Structures are given as structure tokens and as C-alpha cells.
Sequence to fold (527 residues):
Amino acid sequence: MGAFGQRLAHVRPQALGLALLLADAEELPRDLRRDHRRARPAALAIAVKGAPTVVISGEALEDLSPLGPALNGEGAPYAVIHDAHRTLGVLRRFGLEVQRFGCTLTAATLLAEGADGQRDDRELAPLVQDHLGQELTDGLRQGLVPSALERTITPIAAARAELLVPLIRRLVPLLRERRLATIFELECNLIPAVLAMENAGFALDARALQRLVDAWRLERKTAEEPKRISRLDKLISTLGYWPRDYVELDGRIRCRLHPLATDSGRFSCQSPNLQQVPAEHTAPGVRGCFVAPPGRRLVIADYAQIELRVAAHIARCRTLRQVFVDGRDVHRATAAGLARKPEEEVTDRERKLAKAINFGFLFGMGARRFREYAANSYGLELDLRAAEAARDAFFTTFPGIAAWHGKVGALSQRARSEDVTVHTILGRRRRFPAGTFSFNSALNIPVQGTAAEGFKLAMIDLHRELQAIDGQGVLVIHDEYIAEVPEERAEEARGIVQRTMEAAMARVIPSVPIVAEAHIAGSWAEK
DNA sequence: ATGGTAGATAGC
DNA sequence: GAATGCTATCTACCAT
Fold:
């Protein structure tokens, strides 16, 4: 309990709420989750089966007494809501009774987001001054951009978070009972690392990005090839306004990271979505605009074939596991199985095909779909027979994977008439209500989710380890971690990042060796 | 004018 | 028996 209290001292209330929300995400309507994400800092939700649904917000931190009855299980589900109109609408749609709402943080949110002209509830502004004080209104007058404003709000509200400790105390036994305590604790521990990452932002050479955008606009005028035109349009429309709208006065770009918004446990990212910045092969130069400032370096790290390794563990596939235990090349191993020859004799083309096979068939892709996939992603033309042969070879090479597919496939019978739930290693759940089962999701979510959990454990450790050497994570992209570190300690940091990532994931995936690769760079584009 | 969705395309 | 999955954001389109 004391541990929770300490953590909460660092916690932005909306983030805490999301953690609570996640504790049983499967029980909460997806729309509501999305609404929280968009509206933050707005309402928070706690949903635990068998307990009342509680939605609270910053204001509730000042006055917890109304929560008593709800937490005691007396009375109706209780809600205190700030993002008045939209959140109320969502809650009512789901039949949640709303007994009270306030507007302190809503006002802050509205003003923060109003900077881009999206909001019109300006009459709430005076309340901000009453409740959040001079610091915030000064920030507004100085024309702070929205994300900076939000960071101004955060410490003020977080200072009151300790009041939530009694609430947590009641929640924990319920979480234990549902075997959600582990994942809950993980998400709570993660929050400071995520907040620090959001606050740090990524240094961006905005002028260089602007030059790229200008070049695309110029090319667009004379481009003829439809494919090229649509790509240019996409790039211009998504990246064109980043330099103006997202780069802050300190020359850094900041996104919102959401550890709790997805079914799988991966992060989502928005405003802007830095998790889909075009790679070099799509739009050369873009990642090169994401840089380390003078005196600093980037450490860029990612896990090697993490999904295959996690799948080997979950499926208990001995042959796939053995590939990694031996330190062999997994794509080469598949190619050898397909071509019926030793791994040393595999050609480049065979290995490329094997790579497509490994990623495609692992999560239940069919031969027909695989043809498209191989053609689009790898430039490999196959007829249906070849695709089927590839599929057979994959399952013959890794019989444990075939058995795992069989086991999951067997669930689909039962799933027609009853709920089916799949789990990650640490206990995150995805429930499929009767009739909604998806074979592919049931394969994918435990693997993707378990990988995400190992990565989140790593992020917690990385946050601490990097702090000690004046380093700071700046972005995560599913299996990739980017940190900014002092130039003179870059090599040391590289080792720390690599070892920390490997060790944390290994705690979740004990039966398969984990490999992370890390390098030092001046920009995101450097290999 | 605003709101919701489909499809395409970007990431992993 | 067959079945990749998880996202965000843009444009186009249709409905209110």
C-alpha cells in the first residue's frame, strides 16, 4: 500500500485513471476508452467486475467523500465527470448513471485544447483561475502551446493524488481476486516513465522537415504516376503541418503516448502519431529530421524477431525455441525446411521468402492472402500452389506452432455459444463475447501483448538506469526504444539499454533467449 | 456545417 | 476448414 502511495505521488491523475481502467479493459466499452484518451485530462474510470463503476477526475481528488458509498458497494454506480458533454453522452449510452459532475479540469482541458480552435466552452475559463490558480492562467497568457500547458496543469493536480490511496487500498483485493494485480502494478510503475518520455519529446530539425515538405509539394505539381501522387498527398497531408503545429519553442516535438488504449497492451500514439513516421524506404529523409541536440546522442535499440521468440515460448515449440537457443538465423532455418537443404546453402531469395513465411503464417494467414502479402511486402510472385507449399513447410518445420494453432482453433467451436478469453503471460486479458471470436486475434493478441509487457518492464528499468547518467527515453515504437544521452556517455548508455531490454524481456520469456540490438546515432535515420 | 464510417496507407 | 494482428490519420462519401 505504501508502495502505491509513493508511486501516486508522481502520477498524473488521468494517467492513473487509465491504469485503473486498464485493470479490466475488457469490461469497458471500447468507445469509452477512446473517449478517455481523446479527452484527457478528463474523466477517469475504474471498472472491476463485481464492483461499482467509478469515474472520477481531478476534481474528485479534492473531494473524495462522494466516492465512499460507491467503493463500499452501496448505492448506484457513481460518476464524477469533467469532460461534460461528450463524456456524459458516452456514459449514458452505456447506461451508466451520472450523479454529479464538475468542471475544474474540464475547463483546463478545454482551454488547453482550445488553442487550436476546436473548443468553444470559454465561459469556463474563470473556474480555472479559481481552482488551479495563477500559474495556469499565466501560462495561458504567455501563449503556451497545448502540450506545455498540460504539463503545467499536471503537477498541480498530481499533488493531490495521494488522496487516492484509500481507493487503491480497496481496489487491490479485487484485482488480486481477478488475477489482474500483476498487470495493474506494471502499468502503475510504468506511468512515470511514460510521462517523462512525453515531457522530453524528440528534438526535431523543423527547417529540414519543412524543406522536405516543400520538395514534396513541388514534385506533386508535376507528378503523373498515380501511386506516387497518392503517396505524396499522404505525406503532405500528414506531415505538412508538423513543423508549424507540433514543434514547440524548445525545438522539440511531443506526442501523446497511451499505454492503455489498445486491446493488446501495446502503446498507441497520437497528436502527432510519432509511431508511424515514414521509414527511410518510404520517404527518405524524414527520420533524419529527428535528431540529438548538440552534446547529445541517440541510442536506438530494438528487439530481434521478438514476436517469433514470444510465440516460441507461448506455443512451447521446441524446434523454434531451439533455433534461438542455438543462435541460428530463424529465416534461414525456415528456408532450409522449405528447400530441403542445409541452412548454409540457403540463397538470398529463399531467405527473403522465408522471412515472409515466418511473419505471415505465424498468426494464421491463409495461402491466398499470403500471395498478396508476399507480393506487396517482399516483391515475391508466387502461385497458389507455391504459397500452399510454403505454408506446409512452415508448419512442418515448426510443429509446435501448428499444434498451438490447432489448440486455439479448437476454441472457436465453443466461442459460438459462450465467451472465450485469451491471456498474456502477465495476465492481461482479451475476452471475446459469444459469437465474436477471431482465430487470428486469439493467436496474435497474447503474443503481441506479452511482447508489449516485456517491453514495458524494460521501460521502467530504462527510465531509472538512464536517469542516473542524465539520459532520457524519447520514443517507443512497439519493439524499438530511442533514448537521448550525453555524448560522452553514449557507449555506456548503449550497453545499458541493450542489457536492460534483454534482461527485462527475459523475465517474461524465460524459455527463449532474447536479443536486443542497440546503436548510437545522431539522427533516427542512421543505422 | 457537422458527424460517422470505409478505404487507403503509414508504423510495428 | 479457413482465418495475420494491433494501431492513427488522411480523404472521400453519406447522413443528419
About this structure: The longest strand of chain A covers residues 296-303. Residues 230-231, 234-235, 238, 266, 269, 273-279, 282-283, 302, 307, 448, 477-480 of chain A lie near DNA strand B (CB under 10 Å from a C1'). The two ends of chain A are 45 Å apart (CA to CA). Residues 439-467 of chain A form the longest helix (29 residues).
